[in-house]
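CATEGORY: protein folding

GOAL: derive structure tokens
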Amino acid sequence: MLPLLKGLAQVLTEQPGSMPANLPWAHLRLPPFPQVALRVLQLAHKEDVPLPQLSELIASDPAFASEVLTVANSILYAPRYPSSSILQAITVLGASALQGMCLTVGVRAYLGKSMSLSAMRKLWHHNLATAIIAEKLAAGGLIDKDVAYTSGILHDMGRMALAVVQPKGYAALLEKHSGSPNSILEEERNLFGWDHCETGMRLVTDWKLPADFEPVVSGHHSDRRQDSAWNLAELIKVSCKMADAAGFPAFAGCDTTPYSDLLSELPARERRLFYDDLALLAAEIKEKIHALEAV
């Protein structure tokens, strides 16, 4: 390896906090996302894809298939009758739900060894909580609940990708962070040259995901609604804030909006789906996360 490239590789993998700003995208050395999960995400968005094709694709990776089936039978989906095969699970729960199952398994695999750090587990639990709340919120409106869940997992995908590049450096960034979203974006740019919203946008393109995810990963820190409609990006932003309020923040010291204020901002249909007592919502989320962690 040439000395320059060898030195860059050491910066990227061995020296947390020393990565130069404005690093070219190609030099971030992001690990590949599990290919089976990525292919399922791409295919499941097509209305005419045969369910047996999706089943065979997942079955091509037995370990991945086993985890997906376990998630399909978990409390998150609570099927009336447990599924004994991937095809049966897809048939009962639908191809759209399959995206959430595969993404849950795929992201956890993507995080890999970095999950041993408490800051990374907190980050992952925040995304799970956001996804669970987003799914609940979507049940009251015109947004597909499975798409909402998938968007909740993906909304911080850029942050998780940066965390995988430098687990210790990113964990230190989260631990010292003051709580302002703008300050963490600035810290990320100082450390990597890319903040997690920009990284998420690039991942949507590089992974060939539907463009619908772009406003989700890029706009969940925006304080301004793009229009007056209850859209997917707005739903994820509110879900993210509710996850923080329920005790599942992405990092310590995160500023939180009072739960009562968040409830009052919800459209009437969505408000009826939530407990008045925040402790009940937190317990429900904790139960589901525990079930997924046990997989």
